[in-house]
Amino acid sequence: MAPLADALLTVLPTDILPEYLTTYIPGTTPLSETPVVVSVLAGYLATIFSIQWLMKDKQALKLTFLFQLHNLFLTSISGLLLVLILEETLPIWWNKGFFNAICHPRSWTPRLEFYYMINYYIKYVELIDTVFLAAKKKPLAFLHVFHHSATALLCYTQLNGKTAVSWIVISLNLLVHVVMYYYYYATAGGAKIWWKKYLTSMQITQFVIDLGVVYFARTSFIMWQRLVFRGYVPNWIFFDNCAGSEPAAYFGAGLLTSYLFLFIDFYIRTYKGGAAKKGGAKKTKAE
User: Which terminal residue of the chain, N or C, has fewer Cβ atoms less than 10 Å from its own Cβ?
Assistant: First the structure.
């Protein structure tokens, strides 16, 4: 049962859309080819650093209304997509068990693939975050720029690799983004919110959970492939195969590991280092 999805389909029927917009078809679906993705991300980098250079001798733009509208949209769409994904995946977990929910090929359902596509396209909308920072003459921190561009690439690789564990990583990311974009929406309007430090802690916790699940899935796959499949050990000792291409899985695990270390470093420098000791952390946008 997926009541929210069913209700939305009565208003926005997907059957009127062409197949390549509801099913990920490499080479046909928009932004499904590596040269195109790399070109768009290169254009993103060129745009933000060009804006930064152009604004060097100009007064910072406020853009408060547009910035709030942008963040309100992202917190809302993140929340909606999170609920849609959970109502599709939790029944699989409940009926088939956690391992099947993260590893069985059938846990990559057509409806989930459509949600993953929406999430992927949202990552390009999130690139506008950095455009606002550059126009407002805020620092373009390496963590922010790297995380935004690399996450779009991550979503692209996982769609191509059809890694069944994707819903865990995406769901946690959406949960964080509901909170994070609400924070930026509220503070842009003048609200004083005291829990920014805990938002960074939430981001770090997200990556710890991500990596625990992803490395568990990868270890299970390696044990199955190297030992069980070849008949060296009985099947019951290790779990089973885990759906998804190896390159996509290794790229995802490596990138998420880098995120964890980068966010820990950001937390230490911002809240435990000199900035915190001098009366409060700098307002630097990590994501």
Answer: N
- As a whole number of angstroms, the distance between CA 255 and CA 147 comes to 9
Q: What is the pTM (predicted TM-score) of this model? A: 0.90
- Taking the C-alpha atoms of residue 238 and residue 243, their distance in angstroms, rounded to an integer, is 15
Evaluate if residue 197 carries a pLDDT over 60: yes
Evaluate if residue 283 carries a pLDDT over 60: no
Average pLDDT over residues 76-99: 96
Residue 59 and residue 164: Cα distance in Å, rounded?
48
Question: Residues 110-126, buried b or exposed e (16+ Cβ, 10 A)?
Answer: ebbebbbbebbebbbeb
pLDDT exceeds 70 at position 222: no
What mean pLDDT comes out for the span 153-174? Answer: 97
Spell out a b/e string for 43-54, using b for 16 or more CB atoms within 10 Å of the CB, else e.
ebeeebeebbee
Burial class of residue 109 (count of CB atoms within 10 Å of its CB; 0-12, 13-18, 19+):
middle
Residue entry with tokens 């499949």: 229
Q: What are phi and psi of 130, to 5 degrees?
A: -70, -30
Question: If you average pLDDT over residues 135-162, what whole number do you get?
Answer: 97
- For residue 238, the SS3 value is coil
Task: Report the amino acid identity of residue 144.
Answer: H
